Amino acid sequence: MWSPGTWMWRAALCCMLLETFLHTARGLNMCMSGSATSCEECLLIHPSCAWCAQEEFGRGRTLTSRCDLSQNLQKRGCEARFIEYPTSSISVLQNMPLSSKGSGLTQYGVVQIMPQKISLSLRPGDQTWFGLQVRQVEDYPVDLYYLMDLSLSMKDDLDTIRNLGTKLALEMSKLTSNFRLGFGSFVDKNMSPFSYTASKYQENPCNGYKLFPNCVPTFGFRHILSLTDKVDRFNEEVQKQMVSRNRDAPEGGFDAILQAAVCKEEIGWRKEAYHLLVFATDDVPHLALDGRLGGLVQPHDGQCHLNDENEYSASEKMDYPSLALLGEKLAENNIFLIFAVTKRLYVIYKDFTALIPGTTVEILDQDSKNVIQLIIAAYNVSFNVSVEARSCPPRGTDQSFTIKPVGFKERLEVSVDYQCDCGCSRTAQTNSSICSSIGTYNCGTCHCEPGYLGARCECQEGEASSMYLSACREAEGKQVCSGRGECSCNQCLCYESEFGKIYGSYCECDDFSCARHKGVLCSGHGECHCGECKCHAGYIGDNCNCSTETSSCIADDGQMCSGRGNCVCGRCQCTEPGAFGDTCEKCPTCPDACGTKRECIECRLFNSGQLADNQTCQRLCKDEIITVETLKTEEPGAVLCLYKTDNDCVMKFTYSEHASGQSVLTALKEPECGGGPDALMVLLAVVGSILLVGVVLLAVWKLVITIHDRREFSRFQSARSRARYEMASNPLYKQPVSTHFVETDFNMYGKSFNGGVH
C-alpha cells in the first residue's frame, strides 16, 4: 500500500497537470474570470487558483488580477512568499498493523482495518486520496448462511447447490478453522395472486402439472438449519429439500433475506464473526408495493417474525421489504450479502448491488467455483478512497465521518478541517494608513468602510463630476458604464444580475450573453467571456458545440467514416446514399457492400481471403453470421450477394440490417458447386427434344386439319338444308306428273267392266 506521502505527491502532480491544462486551453484562465475580489473568494474558484498578497503587486490593475495560477503570478512579479496557495493534506493518526491471527483469546482485539484514524485538511474542490486495507485475519470466525430458492423453476439447479456445502467448507478451511454453515429456503407468499390458493393445490401445488406432478406446499421463508460447524448436517438437510411452486415468475426472496438478517438468535449469528449471506435464485424478486396486488398495504416493520416451526409468520400480513430497508438491516447486523444467480439475471441483480450497500453478485455455475471464489475474495480486500470538499462550511465547524466495511466491526475514523481561510488574513490591519485610515488592509487589498471606495478608499460614494463621468464612458457618446452600472469615484460599479456577473472597466462584459446550444451556455464546452465563448481544448464554433476530435469517426477498417462520409464536429455525416451508422459502416445498398462483407464471410467461415489473419478478422468482422442449408432471399430489406470461389463454385449470402442496429449475414454452410456435363445425357436430351418437338408439331397439324374439315362439313350440311327449303316453297315450281294406262278387267255390281285406269 502506498504511504500518505505518496498520495500527497500524486495529488500535487494532478494539480500541476490541471494547472497546465487550464493555462493552455485556448488562453482560458478560470482564475482570472473577474469574480474574485478577495483571497478567500479566489481560493474557492478552483483548486489551481492562487492569490498574491504583495502590496505593490498589480498597481494600476483591477483587483481580480491578484487571482491567477501560481506560476503566472510569479511571472508577473509576485514573490513566492506572498502567494497564498494551500493544498489538501493527509495525516495518519493511528496506523496499527493488521493482525495475523484471530482465533483464541485475541479475537476481540484483532485489527482488520489499517489505518484506524486519519485527519484530512481539505481545500474546497481539491480531491485527495488515501489507501484503506481490509483483511480478515487468519482463523477469524466466519458464519455463512445459505438461502436457497425452492420454487419449481429451480429444480434443475438443485444438484448444483446440493454439493456446495462440502466445497465451501473445504475452501474456507484454508482461511479459517472457525467456520459455520446454516441453511434456509424460500418460495413466495402463499396467497393470490402470488401462489395457487385453490383447495386442490394446498397440499400439492404441482397438482395437474404434467412435467412435475409432485411438490411440497408453498411457503414464504423457512429456516431449516441454524449455523453449525457440522458440514454433514448441512449436506443432509440440503439433500432432503424438494421444490415447491408459485404462480407468478418473481419470488419472495427479499422476505427471506430480511428474516435471515434480523432473526439473529434463531439463525445463530455470532457477534464476533464475519457474517456472509449467500442468496441463490433463478428469477427476479418481488419488491415493496408488490404486496398490494394481494391486498397487503402494511409496510414491512423490519422485525423478526419466525414462529415455533421456524417459518415466516407475517408472510400474508405485510408487504415485501424495500431495498432501503434491506440495506439498513444488512448494515445494522454486519452482514455481507452475495447474490448467486443464473446468467440471465446477472444484470438485474448487478443493478441491485448499487442500491443495497455491501452486496455483490456472481453467476451460479454448474461447479459453483465462482461463488466460492467470490466468498474467498470478500475475505481479503484493499481499496482506495477519494475525498473532496465541495464548499466551505460555517466557520468553526468541525466535521468527521467513519468508514465501516460491511461485515466488519472495525471502522476508520476520519476527522476533517477545511482550508477556507488565507494565511495572510491573520495579519489584517484595521484602519490602515494604506487604506486612508478608513479601511482594513487584508492580503494586499483595502476593504473600505461603508460609504468609501477606491483602491485606497480615497473616494466617497455619490461624488460625481463631468470628469468622473467621462472616465466611466468607453467612448464619447457611449452610455455611462454601458448602462449597466453607476459611475462613482472615477470608476464603474456594475449592477448585479440574476443571470450572472457583469464586469469590466465600463461594465461592458458579462458571463452570460454568449451563444448557447440546446439551452446550454457555450454548449458546456467553454466559458463565456464578454459575449464570446472561449472554447475548451478540442472544441470550436461560436457556441463551442463542434468537437475537433476525429477518433470517433474512424471506422473499424481504419477509414474516416468508412469512406462514405465526412467527419463534422466529431460525428460522421454520411454522403453515400443508403449509408448509415456511427461511422457510415452500414450500407446494404452500396455498390461495395457485398464485396466488403465477402471478406468477412471468407475469413470467418473458411479462414481464407485477405482478412484471414485472426486479429484482423476479429477486429474488422464483428457482424453476426448465421449459416443455413438453404438460403431464403425473400426477407424484406435483405440484399442477396454472390461471388465465385477459387474452385469455380458459387457462394451465396444475404446482408441485412436489423432494427436493433446489428448487421446480420446469412450464408450457406458450403458454396454451391455444379458437376461436369454427361455426354450421353446431353445426346439423349437433344434427341428427346427433337422427337418431342416433332410429335407436338404433328399433333398441332392434325388438330388444325380436323378443325378445318369439320368446318367444311358443317358448311356443306348448311347449304344442303337451304336447298331443300327452297325447292319446297318456290311458287313457280310444279311437281312433274307422269300418266300410265293399265288394262284391267273387273266386275261392278255384277257387270263386267273393261277399260283403262288413269
Quickly list its features.
758 residues; 6-stranded mixed β-sheet; 4-stranded mixed β-sheet; 24% strand; disordered C terminus; glycoprotein
How can the largest sheet be summarized?
Answer: 6 strands, mixed
How are strands sequenced across the largest beta sheet? Answer: 10-9-8-11-12-13
Shape: flat
What amount of the residues lies in strands? 15-25%
Backbone structural class: alpha+beta
Helical amount = 10-25%
State the total count of DSSP E strands. Answer: 38
What separation lies between the terminal Cα atoms?
Answer: 162 Å
Radius of gyration of CA atoms, rounded to a whole number:
49 Å
Counting H and I runs of at least 4 residues, what is the number of helices? 15
Uncertain parts: 1-27, 60-64, 744-758
Mean pLDDT: 80
Subcellular location: Cell membrane
Function: Integrin alpha-V/beta-5 (ITGAV:ITGB5) is a receptor for fibronectin. It recognizes the sequence R-G-D in its ligand.
Membrane topology: Single-pass type I membrane protein
Organism: Sander lucioperca
